[in-house]
Amino acid sequence: MKVDILLGLQWGDEGKGKIVDVITPDYSIIARFQGGPNAGHTLEFEGHKHVLHTIPSGIFHPSKKNVVGNGVVIDPVIFQREVEELLPHHVNIREQLLISRKAHVILPTHRLLDAASEKEKGTGKIGSTLKGIGPTYMDKTGRNGLRIGDVISDRFSEKYEHLKKKHLRLLSHYNDFNFELEPLEQEWLASIEFLRTMSFIDSEHYLNRELDNKQRILAEGAQGSLLDIDFGSYPFVTSSNTVAAGACTGLGIAPNRIGKVFGIFKAYCTRVGSGPFPTELHDDTGETLRKEGAEFGATTGRPRRCGWIDLPALKYAVMINGVTDLIMTKADVLSVFNEIKVCTHYRYRGEEIDHLPYSIDPEEIEPVFITMPGWRDDLTGIRSAGNLPAALEQYIEYLEAQLKVPIRVVSVGPDRSQTIRRESAMA
Ligand code: GDP
Ligand code: IMO
Ligand code: MG
After folding, report:
1. Which residues have CB under 6 Å of ligand 1?
2. Catalytic residue at 41?
């Protein structure tokens, strides 16, 4: 058996949580491979809305196992809150959730370092979610990090104090950054106690054994390909590999055990935080997208920047990830428009190009659009591909032809049921 991967092709928030929940019945195990509480994955069913940050999006299916892989970073405080929110929904967390001993732990001082660094950057800030993601991955690669295995060892206090001391030294170099660690630390230590009651595993052994046992595994990504530490719009990125290769390192799965790669994208484009966004709309159309798409961050509540779909960027993401199947979400949001624009090229140094150059800064590139007819039909009640309006089918087929990958699923609303599986002419 192979591991399939589902990951975002844009700047995050493509609807990964919703779709993972929908396809979980096809799998035995759902495994998150990177990121941490910077993620906000929204699921809606039976009139309830759930937002997950650390816990994989298969958790509402009682017979399925959910793994937090070694590539993930965990904030015990946010994790505890997340678990407590699940309790009224009959989730047997200690049975269903397994956490890698090699996952790294976010300290209160990581969050402070994140905030101090952003404050110092001023207008050049990344627009981080301030969850301590960057500093935690820095300690991981710097070989200073605290792992889940340390949390359950006798040397926990010693290791924690050692790392905290290092962080306090770093924090003392920031001017004008005041903080009170004590209350944050008390809350964190209480949550560490809670975390210790969870189930821990050597997830690389577990996952490979389950593959040998012919179990199907879905790897769930966080963020999106354009936020990848290597391939995203650096430095306005997150601190992990969000692309398909990240599933290998974040779970201990060899490349030859990867099966399908599901690439998920919105029918338009959004971004939250700073950094270049070639197709961003600063006008009423952008405002309409934000309003119709309820484009406000699931983790921070910040308004998301909105724009038209960007084919050069999508082509790049398809290439880097080896996407085998596409999933398009939020098609329903475009129903308000008479016409829809698609960025097909960039104007770059006097040429028209359809790939992503080294820099996508606004001074370097200008997006080139084509206009397609809209459909103006309410899609939210449609459940079969045969009932999709002709203009939407035309939009889908155009994107498929450009991206050279079939669009297998079209999402027409936030609810689990608002999902259409589609036979593609591309086979
Ligand atoms: P994720 O981070 O990729 O899991 O995505 P988020 O949950 O952060 O953001 C996606 C938002 O769009 C959530 O509020 C979802 O409930 C919502 N959503 C997902 N799919 C659709 C869709 O097809 N149509 C609409 N209107 N909303 C959707
Ligand atoms: P999901 O999994 C959208 C963005 C932040 C910021 C940059 C760096 O819900 O799609 P970080 O906190 O990682 O240091 O922030 O990345 N960002 C996301 N944007 N969706 C996410 O996750 C994101 N996680 C981080 O806004 O620009
Ligand atoms: Mg999100």
Report:
1. 8, 12-18, 39-42, 44, 294, 298, 329-330, 332-333, 411-414
2. yes
Question: Is 162 one of the catalytic residues?
Answer: no
What backbone torsions phi and psi does residue 33 show, to the nearest 5 degrees? Answer: -115, -10
Distance of CA 224 from the midpoint of ligand 3 (Å) = 9
> Relative to the CA of 41, which ligand 1 atom is closest?
4
Closest ligand to Cα 121:
2
**Which tokens sit at 35?**
């990121």
Among residues 4, 21, 26, 41, the one annotated as catalytic is 41
Distances (CA, A) of 353 to 167, 313, 393, 403: 45, 11, 26, 15
DSSP category for residue 125: -
Mention every residue, 6+ apart, whose C-beta is less than 8 A from residue 128. 38, 114, 118, 134, 273
- CA distances to 59, 86, 204 from 260, rounded to whole Å, are 21, 30, 19
Q: What is the pLDDT of residues 183-237, one digit of tens each?
A: 999 999 999 999 999 999 999 999 999 999 999 999 999 999 999 999 999 999 9
Q: What's the pLDDT tens digit per position in 341-390?
A: 999 999 999 999 999 999 999 999 999 999 999 999 999 999 999 999 99
- Residues surrounding ion ligand 3 at CB below 5 Å: 13, 40, 298
Rg for the chain, CA atoms, rounded: 21
Neighbours of 325 (CB within 10 A): 17
